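Sorry to interrupt, but I need a hand with the structure work. Can you supply me with one protein entry, sequence and fold together? No commentary is needed, just the two lines. Leave the record below and I will have a look.
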Amino acid sequence: MPHLTEMQWTRLRALLDEQDARIRRQLENLGASNTEGPQEGPLDEADLADQEMAGQTSGIMLNHYREELAKVEAARERMAQGQYGVCMDCGEPIPFLRLQAQPVAKRCLACQASRERRLA
């Protein structure tokens, strides 16, 4: 990471730590909301549908947060291997401002835009 100063490096590690902590809090909150217990009294079809929808939504959110946590862990692994901040497509340095805005970025802005156009 020769293109990053020590101060930038420290800032990016802190951003990843903050993102990790935020995601873990979200996972804890999601887990807590799933253990609130069953509703008392008889359930009608609308109640059952609401519970099913809430369960599906919780599952989707759980997967989302797990994916985000995996991205943070992958960024830390790239740091440990000395590959962090280097675009995985073109091999050019990813600018600090992009990394500051998106600490888990694996691609420079040009390569990311190109990838998104291909996938659209």
